[in-house]
Amino acid sequence: MNQRNILSFETLRVACKNCSVGALCLPLGLEPEEVGRLEDIVKRARPLQRGDFLFRDGDRFRSLYVVKTGSVKSYAPSAEGGEQVLGFHLPGEIIGLDAIDKDAHACSAKALETSALCEIPFPRLEELSTVIPSLQRQMYRLLSKEISNETDMLLLLGKKSAEERLATFVLNMSKRLQQRGLSPTDFHLSMSRHEIGNYLGLAVETVSRLFTRYQDDGLMVVDRKHIQLIDLDALESLSNGSGPTRQQQRN
Amino acid sequence: MNQRNILSFETLRVACKNCSVGALCLPLGLEPEEVGRLEDIVKRARPLQRGDFLFRDGDRFRSLYVVKTGSVKSYAPSAEGGEQVLGFHLPGEIIGLDAIDKDAHACSAKALETSALCEIPFPRLEELSTVIPSLQRQMYRLLSKEISNETDMLLLLGKKSAEERLATFVLNMSKRLQQRGLSPTDFHLSMSRHEIGNYLGLAVETVSRLFTRYQDDGLMVVDRKHIQLIDLDALESLSNGSGPTRQQQRN
DNA sequence: GGCAACCTTTGATCTGGATCAAGTCAAAGT
DNA sequence: ACTTTGACTTGATCCAGATCAAAGGTTGCC
Fold this sequence. Notes:
Two copies of one chain form a homodimer. By secondary structure, the first copy, chain A, is of the alpha+beta class. Chain A folds into two domains: about 1-155, Sandwich (Jelly Rolls), CATH 2.60.120; about 160-240, Winged helix-like DNA-binding domain superfamily/Winged helix DNA-binding domain (Arc Repressor Mutant, subunit A, Orthogonal Bundle), CATH 1.10.10.10. The first copy, chain A, has eight helices and eleven strands. In chain A, helix 5 (about 160-180) crosses helix 8. At the A-B interface, helix 3, helix 4 and helix 6 of A face helix 3, helix 4 and helix 6 of B. Chain A binds a DNA duplex through helix 7.
């Protein structure tokens, strides 16, 4: 059964070439030969179960991680035992970029559901990126995109009302799922209302009430964690404050 | 007057070697010879007057900028004509990292006072960083640090009270000024109350009232834009919510 | 199956900070 | 000196969303 051996060998190493999220991830813009060299350093991490940690705040930084399937949340400890959810990570998204500078993780990452990940030892990635310019370019892009994403969150937290925040969140999920070839109008949220609220700077109760209101207004159908978006245009205008009679704030 | 010619030649090009902010900027970790190659691509930008734009939102991304003297604010347009201040940039800090991915600026940058800057054409920097590994490393660090900084802001905007926010802001300025060899307890704020409030997600009036309260409580002396910090420890505990009888929030 | 822990919803109330509304003050021009 | 202008302060009021309270619903575990 030589055939079988080859197969099992193949499944032990990562195959970015065939990975469904390759186009969103590090291989973007690389030549096939270069992707091969990337595959050589990427490790397949043991799958995580819901609640398992990928790393914890304070851990030494060793690797970046890419979600292959499932989803992960990251969160930072805030004063007095509270925590701030920093993001929800979907397949193809890279986790850990904030730890490069300090060489230690300042936040924790935990699986929201059973999830598969790739582990990329950072020193080897850094080394490889010195010899593959397009990999370096992609790294710069990914780091920069992370900054842009956080900038968007600053705007959300600094300026948007509760109603705008949740609409923005739902649409953001919708767009990211669509990029991954999933339905942009019918999906499952793997995080709790509490986690959504925490992420958006809102109380759980506010999130719950807003979902109810959106549903009453015919913008979406909400059944527990299952969401169906009905009126994307209305959500879009809600999300940037151009909803019915809305005036800008002064600050 | 040969002497004079040499001098004027020297002032035309950038001299990172002698730059007072070099240790915070790109040259950190480079060999002298490598710093020289960096100097070759860095341009001295024409000084900006208060109110001048470094770039505007929508501009094509060409260069990163480093503040040499003065200060710059960056801000993004928010819905309905409002704006969100994203940061205040002091000497040694790099501006524009968020634009790498989209190849366009999503925010504007404007001088808060007369300011000198270095301009670093990004394509040339990218190229140089493929041949100087320690420059690449420093770029990764700087990008990562930018992410960490924004993460801190997410926590501030998501979880902190007005009182905590302003204390955090004042201490953050203090620490950054100290790193630049300036007094951490006696300084001038180049931005207006309005801009501080916008940055922190607060109304101008709230900022003003808090400064008054801090002063009444003997934490600092505030005279217009001049700030003297008196009780750093008290400010520190205020800034992370461990002030007098403070309970954590639930969300 | 049945209990326990947790998540979500819904209603009532409370409050931190926004908004509204006058001033006050300093720098710059006339 | 006197007005203008814009930034800052201070007081009064208001409100979005937090907090408190109390049910239901789910899920998982023994």
